[in-house]
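Sample entry (162 residues):
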Amino acid sequence: MIRTAAPADVSVIHAMVRELADYEKVLHEANATEEQLHEALFGERPAAYAHIAESDDDGEVVGFALWFLNFSTWRGVHGIYLEDLYVRPERRGGGHGKALLTELARICVERGYQRLEWSVLNWNTPSIAFYESLGARPQDEWTVYRLTDGALSKLGEQLGGK
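Predicted structure, serialized as tokens:
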């Protein structure tokens, strides 16, 4: 049911990234190309990794998890940051999401990583309930900040001496 992604999966991963962005109501922000995903996952220096969930009955790709390594200075070891977890709506409830998270947890345990982290939108109550059913707990004391687009360029130009 769960396997490591292969280069041939890039098109379906790209399609599901766009489906996820549409579900999260930000399709206009999903600008990554298939070529960029291929380079990030399978280039000379991969920046991310992916696992695929397939249907047991017909082998159809029904979901994916895309992740990368992070590092905890407090714990002194790597962890996994789950960038995207997605199961196609018609296949939800079949255990694919849990199987993907179980595989990432297995990798953490096997490699001595001490954290598996991700973000979820506050309004996504079905996902929140699912994550909490697995024992995950929100980190409410932290607020995520992000620089993008013009603000990122402006700050980068200031630091770059331009």
